[in-house]
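U., I forgot to send this yesterday:
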Amino acid sequence: MRRVPGLPTRRAAVHAAAEGRLGAAHPRQEGPTDLRLVPPALAAWATAAVLLDAAPGRVAAVAVACTAVAVVLLVAPGRGARTGPPGAGRWPRLPAAAVLLCVAGAAVSAGLHGADVRRGPVPGLARRYASVTAEVEITSDPRLTRPRIRGDHAMPASVLMDARVLRAQGADGTAVVTRAPVLLIVDVRAGAGTGGGTGGGTGTGTLAAGGPARSPWLRLLPSTRLRVHARSAPAAVGGDRIAGVLRVRGRTPPEVVRGPSGAQRFAGRLRAGLREATDGLPPDARALLPGLVVGDTSRITPELDEAFKETDLAHTLAVSGSNLTIILALLIGPAGMAQLVERRGLAPRLGIPLRTTAVLGAALTLGFVAVCRPGPSVLRAAACGSVVLLALATGRRRSLLPALATAVLLLVLYDPWLARSYGFLLSVLATGALLTLAPRWSEALRRRRVPPRLAEGLAAAAAAQALCAPVVAVLSARVSLVAVPCNLLAEIAVAPATVLGFAALATAPVLMPLAEALAWCARWPTSWIANIARTGAALPGGSVHWPGSWSGAGLLALVTVALVPAGRRLLRHPWLCAACGALLVLVVVRPPPLTRVITGWPPPGWRLAVCDVGQGDAMVLAAGRGSGVVVDAGPDPALVDHCLRTLGVTRIPLLVLTHFHADHVAGLPGVLRGRPVGAIETTGFEEPADQAEFVRKEAAARHIPLTRATAGEQRRTGTLSWRVLWPPPRPAPEPDGPNDASVTLLVRSAGLRFLLLGDLEPPAQQELLRSPQGALLDGVDVLKVAHHGSAYQDPELLRRVAPRLAIISCGRDNPYGHPAPGTVAALRAEGAVVLRTDRDGALAVAGAGGQLRVAAD
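Result:
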């Protein structure tokens, strides 16, 4: 290679040394891909997955048999041993022997790790649900779970952490030393603990304000030893990597026996410093930057978390191998050029030799694992990077596919539970796609005059989606149609956000102002990523439902295999390709007029829509083009958001929350997702308190005014008008509970009358009949039956109302028996047609004057 005049002497020497040792051949000039390590890695993976919960005798039999056969293959003379050179007959047998030895090693490792789960007193105590006093060592960051909706209540948030029981003491007082892995669940209701900050947790928020998010349990670091008094329970799924579950009441601070190790304290300071550096950023950047850099997703709201899942961008928050790749590429340059004279990166620019570069890369890798925690993708990335760095240090060329196979083999032997990890599987599939399919697809696109950068990005996103989509379908029962463009657009910002984030992480402990400045610069790429996720998730046809089973995954794989050659032929016809692209855009965007023509939903001129949100309530009153008054939000943000998208509702002049039970308000973030809301109107009875506070916080975060509904209030928007019938203005007797404080509306639209009763029960129904508003109840067209059609209905109210159509909103196979057969029979006896969302799906009422039509989605 010709030297550039004026090149610094030291850099020239380094490059010359590199050229002399390694040569200047481009990687494309090397031979075919070395696949010899792939069969042993796959065999070890499969063996570990199968034998983790096998009996010891079976594990021993497999290990001994495979080892014996491998020894025979290596020692016994082959056919060419007498005529050929020494040992010539043995070498063809090496691949088979290697596979058998890896199977034996995986069997032994799986047997030992599986025995850790089954041995000791913890499994027996868990099966008896016994109380236990234990000394445990935390092995993961604490994470705050999202509250679960059960009926009309939100179950409290909990802190979850992986731990290892070192000493267990049952009710008889006998202490036993063990090493049983467990899941520690800490009940941290509001008011549990004091202090500020959430440490390094990875939860997704809580309905309550304060309490759980400020629990001292969330500030614990891995390697901390605690003494806990807990109720044990068996693992939810057989064959899991935990021996049991320990449930702890977290209303008292944790009893620390020994603090975390020095390395974990240092990592904890770095993570806390990054959080402090991002405190002043806008909400999206404040939430996303720690997630992109170290996987700390504790600030990410449920709404944003759902948007990332809908667009298959959740991997960007999982600290995947791409994070380490970006950092190593910054040091040593692109992996394909790491051993060339033309290599790029900081190391060659600073004149650092190759072996020193490898040592620095190894130190970065160890620090990356310590700070980001050893999750499946982090371990895979670190192991793969270590193999590449070893090749760099020794001056030997290695392709990345053998490095990936080596990483998989070593990790499965080290921790066989990874063989059953979906995260590990997705990580390996994505990396394999980038190493095998992406280069070929990129080359094919470049041959068709696609710009090189765009071709590489498209090929990488499409290849990763093609291999990972079947596994994602098993986990989420859906297939994203916007994953490729969303990942392609987000990838533009991932590298700068990651580099700036790691720079802020490193400088925060020593120079916080500089860290804050770096975090401030990172707000633009992180906000870009958040906007991409929200925009993709808001598209009505962004995803399609798919069977969430392995048979469904197989079907999707077959569809993908069939589409690849079809797509290759399609690229030869630009006009046909453009037409298919336009058709895909129409499917994803689903313009309401076109959707209505094709599907018939929503029916033209619809006045009232009752969404299918499971065991809960969510209704929409049409208030003009793209506008709707929403009554209740249901229990699930995703379900109500999907309903509003299919109805084409983009503006909400008023959101009425009849009362604060979770099955009416927990879906609020889905209603607010990307839609301007003029005001939120609620009942004055603010119970349950945690869910009332949740509504106030959501409204305040978006600067939406909150008002209280009182009987006699009348409103109008366009041709839609309504009157509040209940609750009465104060002073009034306190209701028996939230149900009897439900906001009740009498709605008029195009000559039709709708009565929406919320969850009113017989005492309040009878009071309503006796109130001044009761005179308005005679004869309505549509009744939204109170309390999901429960048995608690006032017969006189049903007789007075005498609806033509009665709609019951309830969930399939709900445990409450809703709707009650007696209620359905009473409604039919009054001449009503009864429809229910659990059987009929979402319902839309249309018509005008005396005409009444109803359609089901």
